[in-house]
Amino acid sequence: MRLIWILGDQLLPSHPLIPSPSPDLYVGMIESYPRGTHVQYHQQKLTLLYSAMRHYSADLKKRKFRTLYHHLTDSPARADYTTTLAQWVEQHRIREIHLLEPNEYDSLHSLPALSKKLGVPIVTHPSTQFLVPRTEFATWASGKKHLLMETHYRRLRTERNILMTPQGQPEGGDWNLDDQNRRTFREFAKEKPQVPPLPPPVKDPIVQEVAAQVSKLFPHHPGLAADLWVPTTRAGALDWLKQFIRQRLEKFGPWEDTMVDGENILFHSVLSPLLNLGLLTPIECIHAAEKAYRDGKAPLNSVEGFIRQILGWREFIHGIYWLKMPEYREVNFLGADRPLPQWAYTGKTEMRCVSQAIHGAVDHAYNHHIQRLMVLGNYFLLGGYEPKAVLRWYTEMYLDAYDWVMVPNVLGMILFADGGFFATKPYAAGAAYQDKMGNHCASCRFDPKKKDGPDACPFHSLYWNFFGQHAKLFGKNPRIGMMVKIWEKKPSAEQKEIRQKAQRFLDAQ
Ligand SMILES: Cc1cc2nc3c(=O)[nH]c(=O)nc-3n(C[C@H](O)[C@H](O)[C@H](O)COP(=O)(O)OP(=O)(O)OC[C@H]3O[C@@H](n4cnc5c(N)ncnc54)[C@H](O)[C@@H]3O)c2cc1C
Ligand code: SF4
């Protein structure tokens, strides 16, 4: 007998290893309790994962596949992958196990030892979950000292013929339409674009059962399992995509970087939790957006901006992970060593922008990109927080968090812990950025414009302290060397005061 082992984040609509049922084939899935406790994953993330797995297996059963399934609550209690697979090998006389290459480095590299323990061969097959196979990315990256997302993105658009003219030029003449996107909060307040509501969450019996089990088995994990708000099936995911294309894509580009108090999603797609489980494929999301443009239903700046995220950033980040692991997890270029602030899991901080983002993460296991990058990421970068602690926090808090996407985004993109392998500069920003792009400052106890006194926004001293601390590293950087020069021109008494203020603030968190 053969076992096709389907991992929880590989719920592909056309799984290449199971084209049709066969009498010598089992399809198995395992909910591993120990895996669910590697870190304190958000309860909604675990509910989404296990619900999606149970739906997927139920669907295979309906299609006449012979399925094996280990639930969290099945005996032996709290079994890991090895125990369950050993049981199946014996009970069902499994002689070989096949699976798609796992998306996680450690899982892939644990397979030889697992095979030895089980006494059966484990065969991996190339994953079709991403557009760019790992080997293709490695070939493209070979010999390059720094990698640029933009170069990779243009290559893919050309080679895959996405949003291109018949003459092989980028649609509309430009590769990048950012000048029409990323509009400020002031413009948002003027135009008052209506944010359409999301469809109500589907609470089917599977989701309800899983939520009850998750809240019982993982009581100390953040969030409330019962509040899961995204779909857990392929059909639900397709509806979710359709709804985004119809209602939010049009305004995605202009308000991509805007932050609005009390609004966690705005015009973002919330497709990452579904893409990362395999419930949606990247190419169908890209084609749906491109079709909306060609049908005249969404403007080019929004469509290009959205496609850039999936074809550009997502594929690039995935490629970087496989290129740089396992050393990547250990990087700490800036020597950051501060433990997480006390309020990381409660949001109880007077900084309104930060507290709003943390509440979004705790309540919904979601923040949009700018909250992750320019609010929380910026705070963790400027505050010198330890990369492994920050990575753990991000991995715990989001519906879409998986190792391949968190490691490069947290260590490379926000913390510059890899020394700038793909980010050309650290994404450091002061209060002016928050004030321009969002309206949190309006209801904050601090004042973004004040540099001194008890109401001064903490981002002011944190920002300059960061450049003071790392002046030697960044003085020659063409994109931020200017900030170091400004720091160096400040009188030493002012520099000392800024340093002390930043230190006092961070010590109190
Ligand atoms: C510190 C940090 C941590 C992040 N952690 C994750 C994570 O764990 N999982 C995750 O999927 N994304 C992560 N991202 C990327 C991005 O923030 C999320 O994909 C996005 O916010 C998800 O919301 P959305 O689906 O509404 O995205 P949209 O804004 O609607 O974008 C569309 C899609 O583009 C893709 N995308 C955009 N940027 C990235 C990126 N930098 N890396 C990978 N995919 C991208 C996602 O699939 C997303 O669904 C992280 C970014 C940062 C800065
Ligand atoms: S004043 Fe400072 S801390 Fe408060 S919301 Fe604005 S940027 Fe954030």
Description:
By secondary structure, this protein is mainly α. The protein folds into three domains: 124 residues, HUPs (Rossmann fold), CATH 3.40.50; 141 residues, Serine Threonine Protein Phosphatase 5, Tetratricopeptide repeat; 166 residues, DNA Cyclobutane Dipyrimidine Photolyase, subunit A, domain 3 (Orthogonal Bundle). It contains 22 helices and five strands. The chain has a five-stranded parallel β-sheet, with helices on both faces. Helix 4 links the parallel strand 4 and strand 5. Helix 12 runs antiparallel to helix 13. The radius of gyration is 24 Å and the shape is globular. The relative contact order is 0.10. The chain binds flavin-adenine dinucleotide and iron/sulfur cluster. Flavin-adenine dinucleotide (FAD) binds next to helix 11, helix 13, helix 15 and helix 17.
List the topology elements.
Blueprint (H helix, E strand, L loop, with lengths): L1 E4 L19 E6 L2 H4 L6 H20 L3 E5 L10 H11 L4 E5 L4 H14 L3 E4 L8 H8 L7 H11 L25 H7 L13 H13 L16 H14 L1 H4 L19 H4 L6 H13 L5 H25 L27 H13 L4 H14 L4 H11 L5 H12 L16 H7 L20 H12 L1 H4 L6 H9 L2 H16 L2
Parallel strand pairs: 1-2, 1-4, 2-3, 4-5
Iron/sulfur cluster binds next to helix 14, helix 18 and helix 19.
